[in-house]
Automatic annotation (TrEMBL):
S-methyl-5'-thioadenosine binds at Q241, D315, D349, A350. GO terms for biological process: spermidine biosynthetic process. Catalyzes the irreversible transfer of a propylamine group from the amino donor S-adenosylmethioninamine (decarboxy-AdoMet) to putrescine (1,4-diaminobutane) to yield spermidine. This is Polyamine aminopropyltransferase. Pfam families: Spermine_synth. It catalyses: S-adenosyl 3-(methylsulfanyl)propylamine + putrescine = S-methyl-5'-thioadenosine + spermidine + H(+). It comes from the Bacteria. Belongs to the spermidine/spermine synthase family. The gene is speE. Pathway: Amine and polyamine biosynthesis; spermidine biosynthesis; spermidine from putrescine: step 1/1. It comes from Candidatus Minimicrobia vallesae. HAMAP family: Spermidine_synth.
């Protein structure tokens, strides 16, 4: 083969490497940020830390290159193998760190730093290799490599959220990118006719990572089995959340992103209080909107009101509502509520639905996850509550779950003040009920006036609530809320307030 065509091939290999390392670099940053926000909930902190620490590591890596004396191709390939092994196992290591230690943030920082250092070495080592091939390092060459690096970044930032995360999940995506890293190393080594040892190491590392890629789900399930006290009966990472169902004797529990959503032993306290407080404050309620409630338990209790003609249940996660329709662990508890002809399921973001629906509702019930990250803050915002007031009928009543009045009192008060500020003309009351499996739980009601609260008879076959108790909870025992700041789309305070409340508690996440 002529010298020039070999040179050509070498150049192509290096430029391909430039694109591939760019894609890998960005995707690792996104994976680290996503893994941290899944595990600890605070996505802005997670993504800023992932980016900041990785970039800092890249700075260190670019300086280190001057101390590397190995042949450029060997050092580049070695760097890719190290990056692949750390990056590939990053999600598993963070998972294990979160589940079995209290130093998950430290583990997260060390992994981000190590990945950053390896990424920071990549471009300078590529430049050294081009020199090795007789290309003078020039601004022109450097700008070409940087341009490829940035184009690769665009591909990565589209690939990750649209393809890898929904179809592969976090752990598999990390192993796939790692295999890509080592694939680049093999490409370079082959081109350089590098030593057999290096080739063998790269091939072994690639096989190892592909093995992890194939068994990633089993690995994740294995970790989960050790995480939850009770046997894990079902689990799936959806594009929105990690759903886990556990079962111990007759205690079925649902977890979303590791947060307990209900225990079958005492969920009636929560769902019956949420449903009856609203539905028994409207005479003959007909049309009901449930935001969230994808487990079907709230719908079960709303269906007990004979006057209810139609329930619209808006839940973002189709996997969740399908699970609640098909898995017997849920259908045994929700009494197949989501199959009832009066229930129509809309798999959409509840915030968007509120602003797009043309219907009016006698009752709006908000049974959404707690506002643990910025994505969820809008579901506890003044703008949403104001819009809900606009889609309620004249006599309409809204009740929202408002986090724990005991574990997160400041968040609970903020929800009440935000509801109040959204429609100052309406009557707002806050109350709570004890749910042993997840503590004293708060609710906030917005009604046309005080007289309607708990004014209507309760349906039959309730397991917990009754007229006397409901009146006591919503009137005599109503919680007086100190005035305070509200949460809006522009300043989503609720997330910080909620997370700072919850940081005081260590055992609320116990599984
Ligand atoms: N009882 C629980 C509590 O008190 O936290 C809530 C349970 S319910 C299962 C929470 C539901 O909110 C889930 O099914 C989840 O899919 C849904 N959800 C989360 N974000 C949403 C959004 N933006 N729009 C609609 N549903 C959402």
């Amino acid at each position: 083969m002529s010298r020039s065509s070999t040179k050509k091939r070498e150049q192509v290999a290096l430029f391909a490497a430039a694109i591939l390392v760019a894609i890998g670099g960005i995707i690792y940053e996104l994976i680290l940020g996503a893994a941290a926000s899944y595990l600890v909930g605070d996505s802005i902190l997670s993504f800023s830390l992932a980016t900041g620490v990785t970039l800092f590591g890249m700075g260190i890596g670019s300086l280190l290159v001057n101390y590397i004396k190995l042949h450029p191709a060997t050092s580049f390939a070695t760097n890719e193998i190290i990056l692949g092994l750390i990056g590939g196992n990053s999600v598993m290591l963070m998972y294990l760190g979160f589940v079995f230690t209290r130093s998950h943030w430290l583990i997260f920082a060390v992994i981000s730093l190590a990945i950053g250092i390896c990424i920071g070495l990549e471009i300078p080592l590529l430049m050294k290799m081009f020199q090795e091939f007789g290309r003078k390092s020039s601004v022109k060459l450097f700008s070409k490599i940087l341009a490829l690096d940035y184009f690769g970044a665009l591909i990565a930032s589209l690939l990750f959220p649209l393809v890898m995360l929904p179809y592969l999940g976090l752990m598999r995506s990390a192993y796939l990118v790692a295999a890509l890293n080592i694939g680049v190393a093999v490409l370079i080594l082959k081109q350089m006719k590098a030593s057999k040892i290096m080739m063998t190491i790269s091939v072994i590392a690639t096989m190892l990572l592909l093995g992890f890629f194939i068994y990633a789900t089993e690995i994740e399930h294995g970790i989960d089995k050790r995480t939850y006290k009770d046997p894990v009966m079902w689990q799936q990472q959806t594009p929105y959340q990690k759903i886990v169902l556990t079962r111990y004797k007759n205690d079925t529990r649902l977890f979303l992103n590791r947060n307990l959503q209900f225990s079958s032993l005492d969920e009636a306290r929560y769902h019956e209080t949420l449903s009856t407080s609203a539905l028994s404050s409207v005479a003959n309620p007909k049309r009901v909107l449930i935001m969230g409630g994808g487990d079907g338990l709230l719908a079960r209790d709303v269906l007990k009101y004979p006057s209810v003609e139609h329930i619209t249940l808006v839940d973002i996660d189709e996997v969740m509502t399908n699970l609640a329709k098909t898995n017997h662990l849920l259908t045994d508890i929700n009494q197949r509520s989501l199959h009832d002809p009066r229930v129509s399921i809309v798999n959409q973001d509840a915030f968007q639905f509120a602003f797009s629906t043309k219907d009016k509702y006698d009752v709006v019930l908000i049974d959404l996850v707690d506002p643990s990250n910025e994505k969820l803050a809008k579901l506890y915002s003044e703008q949403l509550y104001r819009q809900i007031g606009n889609i309620l009928t004249e006599r309409g009543v809204m009740v929202t779950q408002a986090t724990s009045s005991f574990f997160s009192p400041h968040a609970f008060y903020m929800v009440a003040n935000t509801v109040k500020s959204s429609h100052p003309e309406r009557y707002v009351t806050a109350f709570s009920v004890n749910v042993p499996s997840f503590g004293e739980w708060g609710f906030v009601m917005s009604a046309p006036q005080a007289e309607v609260v708990a004014s209507q008879p309760l349906p039959k076959n309730l397991r917990y609530q009754n007229q006397k108790l409901l009146t006591f909870l919503t009137k005599q025992n109503a919680i007086s809320v100190p005035s305070g700041p509200t949460s809006t789309l522009v300043s989503p305070r609720i997330t910080d307030v909620y997370n700072s409340d919850m940081r005081q508690w260590r055992y609320t996440n116990s599984f």
